[in-house]
User: What shape does this take?
Amino acid sequence: MKKVLSVVLAGAMAASLVACGSSSTGTTNAASGDKAAETTAAAASGDSGAAASSDLKWKFGSQGPLTGGAAVYGTAVVNGAKIAIDEINENGGINGYQVELQTADDEHDQEKAVNAYNSLKDWGMQALIGPTTSAPTIAVGAEAVNDNLFMLTPSGSAVDCTNTANAYRVCFSDPAQGAKSAQYIGENKLATKVAILYDSSDVYSSGIYESFASEAQNYGIEIVDTEQFTADSKTDFSTQLQKMQASGAELAFLPFYYTEAALVLTQADTMGYKPIFFGVDGMDGILDVENFDTSLAEGLMLLTPFAADATDDATVNFVTKYKEAFGGTPIQFAADSYDAAYIIKAAIEAGNLTPDMSVDAIGAGIEEQMKTLKYDGITGSGMTWDEKGDVDKEPKAVVIKDGVYVSAE
Amino acid sequence: MMSFISYLLNGLSLGSVYAIIALGYTMVYGIAKMLNFAHGDILMVGGYTAFIALNSMGLPIPVAVLVSMAVCTLLGITIEKVAYKPLRQANSLSVLITAIGVSYLLQNLAQLIFSANPKSFSSFVPLKPVKLAGGQLTISGETIVTIVTCIIIVTGLVTFINKTKAGQAMLAVSEDKGAATLMGVDVNGTISMTFAIGSALAAIGGILLCSAYPTLTPTTGAMPGIKAFVAAVLGGIGSIPGAFIGGIILGVLENLAKAYISSKLSDAIVFSVLIIVLLVKPTGILGKKIMEKV
Assistant: This one.
């Protein structure tokens, strides 16, 4: 009897785990499968148009997770690049040569990312818009540096993503978000007295906190209170919030994920504490917490490079084309990737490079130009790059009004 | 001064939740001599049940609380019958591991059914925050209800155990199972009843916890469960007033340490106090000395 029971229990447990894994990947697979199909269909039509003008073409690759749990990011990156390349081809290509785009799936896995990179290289890739996520970017960077193939990751935000000489990025690195938040708060005169609450057990959160704290003074911000919580005690924030309130801070900086932020906002509301709340990209998602009263997030600001509702021509053009081609509003990853394609174009044109050059020569040429390149994109104006490959650009913020994001400016 | 009172009240509120959960640990330990590590997860099930009853089924608050208590009671009895009862004669380590297994089973089932995305729990306490001293001191309705509920539960339980026949049976089983059987006490029935009461309390604890700290995930019960276990040990495991005192001390210490020393080190400070108390009184504050026969 005992044995039977234990077997049944173990079976139930295993079944629950298996079902858990398969159901989640099953749904994402189906969703991304549709998108991937659209992408290939669109790519095919782009190719036929390009073939008419010249046989010699630029060959760009793009890779990211197109299936699996992170598929939403890879699909966005590939789609964003696709729209940019189509536009470039319509306008005469790069230095007179049309561009061909090939995509590969890395499933957000380091080993598969290197395989995807190798298959793109065999196809004849000359520059890479990708990879999408941090760990694959680091793995591919280590491989691509041997070929000196230029890679520009739209969204790999870990510090190590740009460790190799050939790797650059469009998004801010994780710690840079802290410094940029300080710059944004200071330059827009949102507040002079700031209180910070962060997760001291999390690398992302404490990394942003440290860079914010070290930059704050340069922008005339006084940090009047610093509070922490840890992964083990992240339900009760009342004491921390009370101290922040008592410190007289006009702005509360919350560099952590939306899960905890939903709690913080609720508890602050109960206390009647209403400073300006300011978050970073981890805050993105707060409006989607089930049953969360979004009126509590009213006025919440978050630092994110891209707001789909912005009214400038470039953003409107991109968002309209994206909706037409793929349906749905583009996320930040798609915008980063769209910019990445144009940044590579700008560098190639500045260096007067042609597709008949070797991969190494093209890589060296682009890297040379990146040192002095200045680019205005939809994810930031005045982008420049340091020798490490990290971007510097004007930070942008969005604010939540009536339950949706709108540009803070 | 006002801020001190306010920190103290936060601590009392958190401590009361720990105390209500700790009662479940301590009763089960006292009677079945086992650590029911799935207790925190029963609390989570209580939270989800209440969430569904209130938000999806639209039941009134008192009914939702009763439904949640009923579901948890059933779950507690079922777990006891299926997973723990067959191991009654086994050594305590096997039962402990089984309890951890049940805990993971419940967490994963919840993840399967409700997904890992957090749900925002709407408060079960319809009271408005009370403002005192010209608005300098705000006491939330949840704080008041949690503290009052905790006091009612502890008083009720102590009376139940000392004044009723079923309560006396529980005491008898906790002192000597063999002798209790000989005296005609239904040991299995008493143990089931203990699980039932403990699980119903977990449901209340879950609702109060989620009302005060309104995020519900499949791991909501894990950390409060462990803290409550610590509270039970601090107060003296097996003792009901001990669980109450332990819970309150833990909650107040945690909040005062956060307020006056460092929010980073609060857990470290709380656990250092635990170590010191256990060094001085190894059986906890109200724990009984256990005589080992050699």
Remarks:
- The interface with chain B takes residues 1-2, 5, 9, 12-13, 16-17, 19-20, 23, 200, 227-230, 232-233, 235-236, 238-240, 242-243, 246, 259-260, 262-263, 266-267, 270-272, 289-293 of chain A (CB under 8 Å).
- Residues 23 and 185 of chain A are 43 Å apart (CA to CA).
